[in-house]
Amino acid sequence: MKISILTITVVMVAALAAFGQEGAVEEAKHGAEKAGQAVKNGVETAGKKTKEVAQTVGQKTKETAETVGHKTKETAQTVGRKTKETAETVGEKTKEGAKTVHRKSKQAMNKAKAETSGQQSTNQAPNTSSPNDR
Fold first, then answer.
1. How far is the C-alpha of 13 from the C-alpha of 19, rounded, in Å?
2. One digit per residue, pLDDT tens: the chain, 134 residues?
3. What pTM, to 2 d.p., does this model score?
4. Which residue of 90, 95, 110, 122 has the smallest Cβ count within 10 Å?
C-alpha cells in the first residue's frame, strides 16, 4: 500500500507538472500572439502616419509651386511693364530731341537765308563766272 500511494503520488506529481508545462506553453503562445498583434498595430499606425505625411508634403509642395509660379508671373508682368515704360520714355525723349534738332536747324537755315539775302541786296554783283572758278 505504501508503494501504491507512492506510485499514485509520483503519477499525480508528473501529471501536475505536465499540466503546468502545458499552461506555461499556452501562456507563452498567448504572449507571443499579443506581441505579434502589437507589432502589427504599430506597423499599421506607422504606415498610416507615413501616408499622411506624404500627402501633407505633396500638398505643401503643390502650394509652393503654385505660389512660385504666381510670383514668377507677377515679376514677368512687372518687368514687361517697366520695359514698355522705359521704351516709351526713350521714344518720347528721342522725338523731343529730333524736334529740337529740326527746330534749331530750321532756325539756323532761316538765319543763314536772311543773312545771305541781306548780303545779296547790298552787294549786287553780276552773276558771271570768272575763269578761275572752273
1. 10
2. 667 776 777 777 676 666 666 666 677 777 778 888 888 898 899 999 999 999 999 999 999 999 999 999 999 999 999 999 998 998 888 888 888 888 888 888 888 887 777 666 555 555 555 556 55
3. 0.43
4. 122
